[in-house]
């Protein structure tokens, strides 16, 4: 139903909680054309356009929204694709409430315009119409750039470089492109068919995707330069899971969220019983953490047949980093929230299988370095929870493989690649980096913004390098020339 007045956002249709816990289909069902136009007409078309300031990939939001309001859907998606090569992805998984929609003037006295929902609508409309405009492919003799990692940062950098006229080759360690979009986000939030469509579009730009290549093992960065690549972008993400470092984490039935979600996505557990996936799901599941990955893990566990799923989080709801929408969806589906609680130990049986977790209540103290109030143990508040499965979702760090194989690449104490500035320039000339491998685990759209900035920096680097060669050649050709 449309909103009651211009202050109220037109809600997006979605599956009922009782239905969706039994399938891996998308929860949100998207707007109809009429609903999208109604929502777009809520936009005030501000002259200063603060929403654009909140968009890491710099979309001209008022322009595309105006075209949706006018029913000019093709022009709307063309406007988005001038800046964003993954619109269907962004419309589904970007935290618009803390990005563009946070700055929406309409939101000061009501709900902000549903910018993400409108972006998703026009991206899906284009696919349904099969109306994608022809794209100009890169010339075969164009300068070559290697992109390591096919997640949001790598795909964005490669696509932008292709648009600039470079031959971009993406090297992916796993067998299909997408990175966290494919292996870390559940099917009900990011359908694989949608991601394939986005990757196919990037291929149409002239980007080559080479799967099953683990840079640092299969080939090293220095060898990429020897093969003729003139610059390298590293967008390998944050794929090394953090653990609680408590007794019992090595028990059968204790997963990192990284392993748990990758198994489900890589081995197609979302299509059970068509595919049999080695993921143990018992009756009682606990997910430790309060971010989006924790919500994803809990909701996947429900869909795989768990009878009781709990979120165990050491702070309060106010400090939870997960998107509000994801928390609400988890609650609607029956996930229980045990807040101000932390595990102290996982307990197992004589066969090494998880059977329980010993937990402790917490209270909040003064803010810590993260700006959130620090959890403090409550003395004498220990209790036990019976469990069959536990998923640890407390964040990820940088995989050290690439850095270890590239001695001149400067990294921080936590293993993240050190860059000079937002350009992504690393300690090695011609090597740039961006996304989670630089910042630590963040959002899809933040990684895309980093890939976009790095692509511009690579273009400037290669142009200046070319200018230096021309200048050097000119000097050699005119001996004795004076200034």
Biggest sheet overview: 5 strands, parallel
User: Whole-number radius of gyration?
Assistant: 24 Å
Principal-axis shape:
globular
Classify the helix fraction into a percent range: 25-40%
Helical stretch tally: 17
> In terms of structural class, how would the helical and strand content be classed?
alpha/beta
Strand element count: 18
Mean pLDDT: 92
| Low-pLDDT windows of residues | 477-483
Estimate what percentage of residues fall within beta strands.
Answer: 15-25%
- In order across it, which strands form the biggest sheet? 5-4-3-6-18
Question: What does the secondary structure layout of this molecule look like, with pairings?
Answer:
Elements: E1 13-14, H1 17-20, E2 28-30, H2 33-40, H3 50-53, H4 61-69, H5 73-81, H6 87-93, H7 115-129, E3 144-148, H8 152-163, E4 167-171, H9 180-183, H10 192-204, E5 208-210, H11 221-226, E6 231-234, E7 240-241, E8 254-256, H12 257-266, E9 284-288, H13 292-303, E10 308-313, H14 324-332, E11 336-339, E12 341-348, E13 354-367, E14 373-377, E15 383-386, E16 389-392, E17 396-397, H15 401-404, E18 431-433, H16 436-439, H17 444-477
Parallel strand pairs: 3-4, 3-6, 4-5, 6-18, 8-16, 9-10, 9-16, 10-11
Antiparallel strand pairs: 1-2, 7-17, 12-13, 13-14, 13-15
